[in-house]
Specification:
Blueprint lengths: L2 H57 L4 E3 L3 E4 L4 E9 L6 E8 L14 E4 L11 E4 L3 E4 L4 E10 L7 E14 L2 E15 L2
Parallel strand pairs: 2-10
Antiparallel strand pairs: 1-3, 3-8, 4-7, 4-9, 5-9, 6-8, 9-10
Length: 194
């Protein structure tokens, strides 16, 4: 065996050991940088979402506002939707009622009206394939806007079609012997995809 080939082998081993050592020292440094970057960006995204939510709440000019009224969702999916109840009166509304037609816990104030399943309702399609829940009543202070979370849940039994639900918010209060009230409806459409 030649001396030059032995030196080449020793040099290769030394370079390999140095490379592994540098890699071992660099990996924690690089992962630390990425974890710091992730933490910073998550904080900024959370702040941006909070600012968007605040702007939506402050911008609500109707008696109640929905962040979104049309959704594409999959079976077994759940989504939170922000709703704002806007009390424009000079008195506190002790019970702002929230009713959702056609879901589990739907209200009788809608009468026989439940939900509309676009494309027709067959025996295996039911309004209860999707549930929309919230608090039944909310206290809303005078000249205040109260955020409320609606939770939309698509059950596994839902069909690939569009479900349409009415949401009704109403309430009243008394100020100076005069009764002030509101009663508004909006529609939420849920398009079930696969």
């Amino acid at each position: 065996m030649k001396k030059a080939s032995l030196n080449l082998s020793i040099n290769a081993i030394v370079i390999f050991i140095l490379a592994l050592t540098l890699l071992g020292l660099a990996l924690p440094f690089i992962t630390g940088l990425f974890s710091q970057a992730t933490t910073l960006t998550e904080g900024k995204f959370d702040r941006i979402l909070a600012e968007d939510e605040k702007a939506f709440i402050e911008g609500c000019a109707d008696d109640f506002c929905l962040e979104q009224t049309s959704f594409e969702m999959k079976k077994n999916q759940e989504q939170k939707v922000l709703m704002v109840i806007n009390n424009k009166f000079d008195c506190t509304i002790d019970e702002a009622h929230i009713e959702i037609a056609g879901t589990d816990g739907g209200s009788s104030s809608f009468g026989s009206d439940t939900c509309n399943i676009i494309g027709g309702e067959s025996s295996d399609q039911k309004c209860s394939d999707i549930s929309i829940t919230s608090f039944a009543t909310e206290t809303v202070l005078e000249k205040d806007k109260t955020p409320v979370d609606l939770i939309i849940s698509v059950k596994n039994t839902a069909k690939n079609t569009v479900y349409s639900y009415k949401i009704k918010v109403y309430g009243s209060c008394v100020f100076g012997g005069q009764t002030f009230s509101f009663d508004k409806q909006k529609t939420i459409r849920v398009d079930v995809q696969g």
